[in-house]
C-alpha cells in the first residue's frame, strides 16, 4: 500500500485531479489489510472531501461496507450506513447485495431507510 499511496501522491499532487474511483482504490487497499487500517481509511475520506472536494457517493460507502462485511465489523457497518443516510446518499442495488451477506446489516439498512 505504501507504493500505491506514493504513486497516488505524486500523480495527483501535480498532474491530475483524482476522482472518487481513485480514492475507492485506496480505501479498498487499506481495508483489504488484516486487520483493516481504519485510521488510513478515515484520513483518506477526509482528504478526499477537504483537499479535493470529492463527495463520497454509494461507490465509496459500498467499499466501506464490503470491508465491514468481510471483517464481520457490524458496529462499524452500522456507522457507515448511518453516515450514508445522514449525507443523503441513496443506497443502490450494490449496497443491498453487499449487506445481504450479513443479516444484521441488511436489517439495519432496511430499518434506516424506513425511518429516513
Poorly predicted parts: none
Please summarize the sheet with the most strands.
Answer: none
* Number of separate helices: 7
Beta-strand residue percentage: under 5%
What is the average per-residue confidence, as pLDDT, rounded to a whole number? Answer: 92
Gross morphology: globular
Radius of gyration, whole Å: 14 Å
What's the oligomerization state? single chain
Q: Could you state the order of secondary-structure elements as H and E?
A: HHHHHHH
Strands, count? 0
Distance between the termini: 37 Å
Helix content range: over 70%
Structural class: mainly alpha
What does this protein structure show overall?
73% of the residues lie in helices and 0% in strands. It is mainly alpha-helical. It is globular.
Write out key terms for the chains shown:
116 residues, mainly alpha, 0% strand
What is the topological layout?
Layout: H1 2-14, H2 20-31, H3 38-50, H4 58-71, H5 74-86, H6 93-99, H7 103-115
Helix pairs in contact: 2-3, 2-4, 4-5, 4-6, 5-7
Amino acid at each position: 500500500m505504501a507504493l500505491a499511496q506514493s504513486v497516488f501522491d505524486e500523480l495527483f499532487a501535480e498532474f491530475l485531479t483524482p476522482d472518487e474511483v481513485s480514492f475507492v482504490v485506496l480505501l479498498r487497499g487499506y481495508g483489504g489489510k488484516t486487520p483493516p487500517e481504519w485510521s488510513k481509511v478515515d484520513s483518506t475520506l477526509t482528504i478526499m472531501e477537504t483537499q479535493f472536494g470529492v463527495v463520497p457517493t454509494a461507490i465509496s460507502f459500498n467499499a466501506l461496507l464490503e470491508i465491514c462485511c468481510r471483517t464481520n465489523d457490524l458496529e462499524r457497518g452500522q456507522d457507515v450506513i448511518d453516515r450514508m443516510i445522514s449525507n443523503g446518499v441513496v443506497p443502490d442495488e450494490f449496497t443491498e447485495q453487499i449487506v445481504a451477506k450479513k443479516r444484521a446489516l441488511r436489517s439495519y439498512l432496511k430499518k434506516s431507510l424506513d425511518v429516513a
